[in-house]
Amino acid sequence: MASAKNMHKLVYDCNLEVVAQGWADGCRGLVHSDDSYRRAGENLFIIFGKGYNMRLEKALEWGIRVWFEELDEIGMNSNDTTFTKELHESGMGHFTQLAWGKTTHVGCGLTLCEKNDTMLISCNYRQ
């Protein structure tokens, strides 16, 4: 397996968490926030139905796993992939948010949306 090049240490950012949590609390489903609201990259994940009452940590882990698996779904592997804007827009935007080399900060929020029986996860990424 090839080693990472130019990879920054990822730091959890409580300010990004506050923004992500604020958006998740609105229970808007998979509607992305405006860039001027978050000033960061954003991933959203929704869990429908009664499964939303799983442990919150497990829900967040599930969302991140699904975002990461986009790489396999498109038939690529991380050993020979250069991450570009075009790749991001090819259908693996969630994965590229997780793996973008210049990303240094992440913050996530999640909420139970009882009105539509879902759990919504929002994560924001910034350099």
TrEMBL record:
One of its GO terms (cellular component) is extracellular region. Residues 2-127 form the SCP domain. SMART domains: SCP. Pfam families: CAP. Gene3D superfamilies: CAP. InterPro entries: Allrgn_V5/Tpx1_CS, CAP_dom, CAP_sf, CRISP-related, V5_allergen-like. PROSITE patterns: CRISP_1. This is SCP domain-containing protein. It comes from Acrobeloides nanus.
